[in-house]
Design a protein that fits this description.
With 242 residues, the protein is of the alpha+beta class. Helices cover 28% and strands 26% of the residues. The strands form four sheets. The chain has a four-stranded antiparallel beta sheet. Strands 8, 9, 10 and 11 form a four-stranded antiparallel beta sheet that branches. Strands 5-12 form a two-stranded parallel sheet. A hairpin with a 2-residue loop joins strand 1 and strand 2. Helix 5 packs across helix 6. The protein is elongated, with a radius of gyration of 22 Å.
């Protein structure tokens, strides 16, 4: 599972995201020190980023750069389970939608991700309390319960959606549809806490604190390509109230 694709260019390397080659950054060595065009490098206090780390991993450091950055710590790696990897895996470009300049994933794609990775019998969602119906929007509080291996994981969050109104008299078209849309938003926000769709918050991966250990995940994925079938939740857990 390769996260980046590096290509030699004059003065350095072009580092593109494997899932979307249109997203790429240039890693260069103008004075023997590695530089990157991504925002993560600009903000990193240690002067490094995932793209520089990838170039170093694949091509090594130059002698001058080793001398100049000997004390700069590399971004540490972290091992992820296959389930975590698949939950966090970036969505395809055609699944990403844009509204008012903001990228998002629709509810159907998020639910399908949970079904594919966890299994349809290994997660549930319920609304907590009554929806709060304000003048302009509905707010829903909900709980997503997932069974990952032999562990029960619970995530709670809020979802909201504005009322759609008629142009003629500004009356609300459908309160029930608005509540359903707020519920879908709540499911998506709970799923964010499991890693689903987090990549939308950063094009260059700067939201990550660690590099993912691809070799570890690849080995787990080969052993268990479908994590949802590995550890079905215990029978007693299926009595979760809905």
């Amino acid at each position: 599972m390769q996260q980046f694709i590096t290509t030699k260019i004059p003065g350095g390397y072009r580092v593109a995201h494997a899932d979307d080659p249109k997203i790429f950054f240039a890693v260069t060595r103008p004075n023997g020190k590695m530089l990157c065009t991504c925002s993560d490098y600009q903000n990193a206090p240690v002067g490094t980023c995932d793209h520089i780390a990838e170039v170093i991993a694949q091509h090594g450091r130059s002698a001058g750069e080793r001398k100049g950055q000997a004390k700069a710590p590399a971004i540490p790696e972290i091992r992820k389970t296959a389930t975590a990897w698949f939950l966090e895996h970036p969505f395809r470009v055609d699944q990403i939608k844009v509204k008012d300049g903001v990228k998002y994933i629709d509810g159907a794609s998020v639910i399908q991700r949970l079904n594919d990775v966890l299994g349809t019998a290994n997660w549930s969602f319920r609304i907590l309390g009554e929806p709060i119906q304000l003048q302009e929007e509905v707010i829903v509080r909900g709980r997503l319960t997932a069974w990952i291996g032999d562990r029960k994981v619970v995530k709670e969050d809020f979802g909201a959606h504005e009322y759609a109104r008629k142009k003629s008299d500004k009356s609300i078209i459908s309160r029930s549809d608005t509540i359903k849309s707020a519920t879908t938003d709540c499911i998506k926000r709970c799923a964010h806490q499991l890693g689903v769709g987090l990549h939308l918050y950063s094009k260059d991966g700067s939201f990550r604190s660690f590099r993912l250990s691809r070799s570890e995940v690849a080995a787990q994925a080969q052993t268990n390509p479908h994590p949802s079938t590995a550890n079905p939740r215990p029978e007693e857990s299926r009595k979760e109230a809905v």
